[in-house]
Amino acid sequence: MIRVFIVDDHAVVRQGLRRILEEAEDIEVVGEAGNGAEALNMVHTLGWDVMLLDISMPEIDGGDTLKQIIAHDKDAKVLILSMYEEDQYAVRLMKAGASGYLTKDVAPEQLVGAIRNVYEGKKHINSTLAELLLQECSSDSSKPLHATLSDREFQVLKLIGSGKKVSDIARKLSLSVKTVSTYRAHILAKMKLKNNAELTYYVIQNGLLN
User: Where do the structural domains in the chain lie, given as residue ranges?
Assistant: First the structure.
């Protein structure tokens, strides 16, 4: 029996996933969490084989949740199930240790198949993600500008793009204003942009807003 742990901040999504998975004879839902912090509190005491993890969640998002899980157990099987298309987050999360990436419009049978693949130790990669990973291995000129950013810089980029001030970002990330300003300077330099207006335009044009 494949034991699945669902982590998503929408109760209706968790309920829908549970109904789909419980129809499979070899899958059992053993737990649910509504955010990353709750998931991390449960992850080491709840017996699970595959985690279904959303990206955009309050308190601790899916990316940071994934990193903490993989830091504790590099062989953990975490399948990302997100509303965001592959070109926005998939490569970054696969590099962080995810076992696969699916969008939430996936057919139920594909979801079940992906869980089985991941449980068997395989990576679940569709054709779109495979192409993105191939591009990642090619020359830097083929990569989007934000691919050059560190995970923290990428997080700050998205927050700037959502209209938050440096002081707001500092509070949200528990950093000093000076540290956030340094990240902002690095982002501008790496992406060859001039100001927050250009950063915001880039974020919106590339669909990076949560």
Answer: 2-137, 144-205
Assign 3-class secondary structure to 18-59.
HHHHHCCCCEEEEEEECCHHHHHHHCCCCCCCEEEECCCCCC
Q: In this predicted structure, which of 62-71, 95-104, 136-145 has the lowest mean pLDDT?
A: 136-145
- Closest of 114, 116, 133 to residue 124, by C-alpha: 114
Token pair, residue 16, equals 């829908």
Domain 144-205 belongs to what topology? Arc Repressor Mutant, subunit A (1.10.10)
Give me the pLDDT at residue 33, please.
95
Second-level CATH architecture of 2-137: 3-Layer(aba) Sandwich (3.40)
Whether 63 contacts 40, CB under 8 Å: no
Pairing state between β 100-103 and 2-7: unpaired
pLDDT bracket for residue 120 (50, 70, 90): very high
Per-residue pLDDT, 121: 93
